[in-house]
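Marked as duplicate of an earlier ticket. Keeping the data here for the record.
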Amino acid sequence: MSIKTKNHLFVRIIFKILLSVYLLGCQDSSSDKNIYMALNHVEHVIEFPIQFTLENKTTPSIDIIGIRNFIISHDKIIFSTTNQNGSWSILSLPDYHYFGKFLNQGDGPLEFMQLPSAGSNTTLIKEKEQLVAYLYDFQKGRLMKFNIDESIKSDSSKISVLNDSLPQFLFGVTMIDSAKFLGKKLDNLETQQIRFTYDGKDEITSPIMERLNMASISLGEDFNILSTITKYSKRHNRIVEMPIRLNYINLYSLDEKFEKTICIGNELFNISNIEKKKRWERIYAFSDLRLFDDFFGVVFINEIDFTYELYRYKIPSILLFDWDGNPLAELKLKNHVTSFDIDFVNKDLYTFDVHSDEFFKYDIGDILSKLKSNKISPN
């Protein structure tokens, strides 16, 4: 072989090596968009500026069977239950006067085949001084309006159908206003969850949503790896997405002016690495999300399924963030919880644990005072 031929062969080998490295780098860069359901701006939270331990709990005097979760709105507390003949029990605050139970399960024109959850995918707002709830009928693809105050007054469910031609089996419907909502649907053989806003005519996907929509799982994998509890703050015009299986929260505005991924820990959970683990070895990250005027909070579980289902070694915390995604405070608990909410009028925090059926109340007046006076602030 001549020197010229050897040199030519050497150049070709080097070229192939460089090309392979380049293509591998491109592939990794592209796949990163699929294995992280995160935004471009990521901030890691290692510790919170201040911690409180919730103590001196009391047990409210209520007698409701089959509670799954709850939500507080103004002077009312609503319990979502398994009761097919009145799945929502509504009580007053702070005296727990029982108003009645509403919303039936069934195939009737104003019934739900799958009972709506008060705590996760329900939008409660005041309209003309009346408390109303917007509910998505999962099986029938309908948007329903439930007038809570009128229902209490008449002792019967005052519910109407706003739209009966929505897609079925959406992964949550988050109301933006009375005519527009944010929804998610399974796509690409159930390997992706696609976000979009719908105004009655068109499905619109913003660039931020497109970025999150790229996250995917392998064919046949558990699509709940990508599932989130999603809520919208009209006051701040921001969406909060809390994944169930990932250790980060996505916070973004509808006008594209703000986006942030808040990661609890040093490293984002990698979807591909989650798939490599057995189902019972996967982390149950978060269980609940609540939005308030000045901050929002999540219940942080951070325990693998096996021990969570059998022993529950770890006690959850409630993590609070301001509306720019900065960590405010960690509320440490001494008992297990799956959902929480705050009564700001009476300065009480309530928790419920669906596994033990324990419902507790804590006086958090001092904590709220410190938050309000900006004594708790990010560095």
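See parent ticket for discussion. DSSP finds six helices and 25 strands in the chain.
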